Amino acid sequence: MLTNGAIWRDTDGNIIHAHGGHMLFAQGYYYWYGENRTNDTYVSVYRSTDLMHWEYRGDALTTGSKTDSYRVRTDTSLVNARGGKINIERPKVLYNGKTGKYVMWMHVENGIDYHQAACGVAVSDTPDGAFTYLGCFNPFGEMSRDCTLFQEEDGSAYFISAARDNADLVIYRLSEDYLNIDVAVQRLFQGEYREAPALVKREGIYYLFTSFCTGWDPNQCRYATAKAIEGPWSMLTDIGDATTFDTQPAFFLTVQESGNIYYVSDRWNGKDYHDSRYVILPLTFDDQARPQLSFTDRITIV
Ligand code: GAL
C-alpha cells in the first residue's frame, strides 16, 4: 500500500524522482519515467512488476547523454549558453512496434528563461537504456510546453502540448517512427490556458484531463471527452475538488490485467522542487461513463 503525498522510496531506499512522469508497460515490467533534477540528471527510470515496489534502473537522460541530429536545424544542446542545465519537463515514453525503439517526448526550456517552449525527442533501443537525445524544436513554429503522448491500438501516436503561451492545447499526430510531428489534427480550448494534459481512452471514449495554468500551485482539474481524437471535443467539466486534492495531472495508468485506470499526479512543492510528491487515485466511471475522482490516503494499485 502506498500513502499518497508521503515520500516514496525505491528498492534501494532512495527517494523516487519521477516528477511530471509517465509509465510504459514493456517486457513484463512497468517502467516509470520522470523528471529528476538532481545533479546532472534530467530523466530517471524505475521499473516494477507490482506497481508498488520500484527499482531504480538508471538515468535515461542527463547533461552527458549522446545526441544525434535526426532532424535538420534542431537544437541538440543539453547544456545552455551559460554552461548550465537546460530544463526538461514532463517526459513521456512510447514503444514503437515498427522500429523497435523506445521514444521519449518532453518539454524543453533553455534553463535561462521560459521562452524556448520547445518539444524534445530522445530514443533508445531498450526501455531503461541511456536515451540518445535528438534535440528540440517548435512544432510548425508553435510554442510547446506541458505535454503528453498517447498511443492508439493501431500503433498511431499523438503528442499533445500547450501552445500560444499556454492559451491553447494542440493535438499532433506523430510520424510513423514517432520521431517527428506529422500533422496538427486539432487545436483545443482556445484561450482557456489548460496545461498538464493527460489522456486516456475507455470503451471508445477519449478523456482529456488538464489543469489550469497556475505554475506549481494546484487548481481545479477539468476534463473533456470525444469519440475520436480529432474531435469534436466536449466542453470542459470540473472533476475532483478546487485544487484536485492538491495535485496536477501527470498521466493515466491503465493496469494490464485488470484494465483499472489510475490518475497519477504530482503534488508539487514550489518552494523545494525536489520535495515534490506523488498522488495516485483510482479513476472510476458512473453508468453514463462520466469519470469520478475522489481522494483516498492509502492506495493499492490493482
Ligand atoms: C506548471 C507545469 C509544470 C512546470 C511548472 C513550472 O504549470 O505544469 O510542469 O512547468 O509550471 O512553473
Mean pLDDT: 98
CATH architecture, please?
Answer: 5 Propeller
What is the tally of beta strands?
22
Strand order in the sheet with the most strands? 2-3-4-5
| N-to-C series of helices and strands | EEEEEEEEEEEEEEEEEEEEEE
Approximate helicity band: under 10%
* Name given to the CATH homologous superfamily: Glycosyl hydrolase domain, family 43
Count of separate structural domains: 1
- Class computed from helices, strands and strand pairing: mainly beta
Break the fold down into its secondary structure elements and pairings:
Layout lengths: L1 E2 L15 E8 L2 E7 L5 E8 L6 E8 L24 E10 L4 E9 L8 E7 L7 E6 L9 E5 L5 E7 L4 E7 L6 E8 L5 E9 L2 E8 L8 E6 L10 E3 L8 E7 L6 E7 L9 E9 L5 E3 L4 E2 L3
Antiparallel strand pairs: 1-22, 2-3, 3-4, 4-5, 6-7, 7-8, 8-9, 10-11, 11-12, 12-13, 14-15, 15-16, 16-17, 18-19, 19-20, 20-21
The structure holds beta-D-galactopyranose.
